[in-house]
């Protein structure tokens, strides 16, 4: 099939092919399907984000991650605080050269750069997102402090060279890697001796049991709805960090804190739970009526060729994702914020 790249960097048939990597019926899934997703992880991730990026921005602003909430805290303030917390745990300081692995459209990079006065390089393998990241960064006047590079996070040392960054962070991005050892190993290489790595990792918790059909189905729905080749348990992330040589200084599943407002509340679509007046619209978008309006609009845009073919199908997968993530949060079987701060030994 001929690949057609649009002026905005998206490849049309890559979006169309995204859902073909999964059997929606788990009973029909075979190990070969999982292996294919892992082998084709760049196509899986790029197909997903070619179709989902604008939907993410519509529903989630420019920072594509979850966060904890205080009572009465605005949605955008919560996202920024989550980014500040990671930066403070890593002790990022002015003058540091920092790599953002899987930077999306650059929301966290811009926020952390302003919060810490460090210099950030955002890495992304998706042309569409890079174009948008650069546009937003220029608009913010941060183009001399925050830059973006296209690349594969499984080949960081090949692109940047070893010992080239003072710090590296990843916010809900390395779950897209075919193996944690592979991506963590590359991060280890590009860090200077004594450098710090901070990550908010997506993982199934230690209560998750793949031998329980309902647990396996939940992981499958999270994979399909979020462009993830394979969901893995939290303990494997911890083991992978140690295996590649990191010394873990702090680790905590922030989703396990007894917060009165759960991290997944914006996905529930219950406008009565909105924390501020300005958040009503954010929460409404995930209600049944909000989803209906969004899907109908995307369908019309695709029909008129304003949106690439396959965008509505990716939008449907996002609805699967929302339901699965809420279920995973309520049952404590899934976390989007397993925080680990690790360091590369000085010698």
TrEMBL record:
| UniProt family annotation | Belongs to the class I-like SAM-binding methyltransferase superfamily. Erg6/SMT family.
Which domain of life, per UniProt?
Eukaryota
| Gene symbol of the encoding locus | erg6
Which SUPFAM superfamilies does the UniProt record give?
S-adenosyl-L-methionine-dependent methyltransferases
Which molecular function terms from Gene Ontology are attached? sterol 24-C-methyltransferase activity
Q: Which GO terms describe its biological process?
A: ergosterol biosynthetic process; methylation
Which positions fall inside the SAM-dependent methyltransferase Erg6/SMT-type domain?
A: 48-345
Pfam families recorded: Methyltransf_31 (PF13847), Sterol_MT_C (PF08498)
* Protein name per UniProt: Sterol 24-C-methyltransferase
Alphabetically sorted, this entry's keywords are: Methyltransferase, S-adenosyl-L-methionine, Transferase
Keyword hit for NAD: no
Q: Which GO terms describe its cellular component?
A: endoplasmic reticulum
């Amino acid at each position: 099939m001929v690949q057609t790249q649009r002026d905005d960097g998206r490849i049309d048939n890559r979006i169309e092919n995204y859902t073909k990597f999964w059997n929606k019926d788990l009973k029909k899934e075979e190990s070969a399907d999982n292996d294919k997703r892992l082998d084709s992880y760049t196509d899986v991730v790029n197909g997903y984000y070619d179709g989902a990026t604008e939907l993410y921005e519509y529903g989630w602003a420019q920072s594509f991650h979850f966060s904890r909430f205080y009572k009465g805290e605005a949605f955008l303030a919560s996202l920024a605080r989550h980014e500040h917390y990671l930066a403070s745990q890593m002790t990022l300081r002015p003058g540091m050269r920092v790599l953002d692995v899987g930077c999306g459209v650059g929301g966290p990079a811009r926020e952390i750069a302003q919060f810490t006065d460090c210099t950030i390089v955002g890495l992304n393998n998706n042309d569409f997102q890079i174009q948008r990241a650069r546009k937003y960064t220029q608009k913010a006047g941060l183009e001399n402090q925050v830059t973006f590079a296209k690349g594969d996070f499984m080949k960081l040392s090949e692109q940047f060279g070893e010992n080239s960054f003072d710090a590296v962070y990843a916010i809900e991005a390395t779950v897209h890697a075919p193996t944690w050892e592979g991506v963590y190993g590359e991060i280890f290489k590009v860090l200077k001796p004594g450098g710090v790595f901070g990550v908010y990792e997506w993982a199934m918790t230690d209560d998750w049991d793949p031998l329980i059909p309902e647990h396996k189905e939940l992981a499958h729905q999270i994979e399909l709805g979020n462009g993830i080749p394979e969901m893995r348990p939290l303990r494997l992330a911890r083991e992978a960090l140690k295996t590649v040589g990191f010394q873990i200084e702090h680790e905590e599943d922030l989703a396990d804190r007894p917060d009165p407002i759960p991290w997944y509340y914006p996905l529930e679509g219950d406008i009565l739970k909105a924390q501020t007046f300005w958040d009503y619209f954010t929460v409404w978008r995930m209600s049944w009526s909000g989803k209906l309006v969004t899907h109908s609009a995307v369908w019309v845009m695709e029909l008129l060729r304003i949106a690439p073919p396959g965008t509505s199908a990716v939008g449907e997968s996002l609805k699967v994702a929302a339901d699965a993530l809420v279920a995973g949060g309520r049952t404590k079987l899934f976390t989007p914020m397993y925080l680990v701060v690790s360091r590369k030994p000085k010698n």
